[in-house]
Amino acid sequence: MPKYLCDAMKIHVSFANICRAAVVAAGLLTLYACTGEARYVSISGYAQGGTYIVKLDMGTVERKCGPEKIKAGIDSVLLCVDNSVSGYNKGSLLSRFNSGESVVPDNIFVDIYNKSYGYYKETDGAVDVAAAPLFDIWGFGFTTDSLPSASEVAETVESCGMDRLKPRMEPGKDGRVSPEALLLENVRGPLPSLNYNAVAQGYSCDLVADYLKGLGVEDMLVNIGGEIFCSGLNPEGKPWSIGVDRPEDGNNIPGAALQGTIEAGPEPCGVVTSGNYRKFYVKDGRKYAHTVDPRTGYPVSHSLLSATVIAPDAALADALATYCMVIGVEAAKEFIGSEPDIEGYLIYSDGDRMETWASDGITVR
């Protein structure tokens, strides 16, 4: 992959160069639909421990970019994200930073931190990417620990979190960022450890969408592991239809059992669902779900089963879906209803029944 893609990639500039420079890659490319001049294709591949699928209208794409080159460009963007902020890639900038190393950050590394600090402030600390040690001790981070003691939880809450860190990541004169330099001046104790699982896939959707926009694509749906960015219309000339999985324990195959479908578009937006029915474990008869409230240090325990959020971009939708899962049904309803640019669809338990709630601006079928 050309070195400039990761070392000098600008978040919103010149993504078309990826297509021109990329080597043709193998992958699944199928004709999706043809109506007049609109020619939709579906491009899929593997990324971030799962799969992605991108559907787009080729009618407005630069002539030199066929589906194969577009796939190569998408794969290059996702590889850049993996090399930058994946906690599972031991050679990534994030893994090296979390181990205490000073790193030369790329634009992704800086941008996602700065956005995440904004999400931290907007959610009053409920979405905190610097709470990685909490997720680790509960077994939902980059380790397999579980069931920590109350004293371990309390100690971890006090020793991590974005309230200990600077609001913006700014490389030093040598172009490097060190964990020590990110701490506020009066803060002592453990160095910061970051975990972007609450925002990274949505953020990746936005980057892929920016790349496609740079090629002239107007109608698209980008789905990375179930996190979605879409804009324009589908092949039938209608808003995109997106399935919402029924949040039942054991429903581990996306799309296998749906609670309903929602419409999104034609305005650009992110659509993300967060839930506690796939990542959890049961010990001594109690279920421990992967949504951990960083303010208390404990996995949440309430009736909200899943939260689907539609927001202007997928990174924000990702963060706010997590936020809703932290705060529960009633607070999530109040929050969504107070935000003019946000729509939401909540599924929750009421005794033995499964109930739903949708904001006024969302269409559910």
Radius of gyration: 21 Å
Number of distinct beta strands: 15
Total helical segments: 11
Helix-strand pattern: HHEEEHHHHHHHEEEEEEEEEEHHEE
Strand content: 15-25%
Helical content stands at 25-40%
The residue-averaged pLDDT reads: 86
Task: Tell me the strand order in the biggest sheet.
Answer: 1-2-3-4-5-8-13-14-15
Kindly name the structural category.
alpha+beta
* Poorly predicted parts: 1-37
**Main beta-sheet strand count, sense and barrel state:** 9 strands, antiparallel
Basic shape: globular
Query: What is the first-to-last residue Cα distance?
Result: 43 Å
Describe the structure.
- The chain has 11 helices and 15 strands.
- The protein is globular, with a radius of gyration of 21 Å.
- Helices cover 30% and strands 25% of the residues.
- The strands form 4 sheets. Strands 1-2-3-4-5-8-13-14-15 form a 9-stranded antiparallel beta sheet. A two-stranded antiparallel ribbon has the order 6-7.
- By secondary structure, it is an alpha+beta fold.
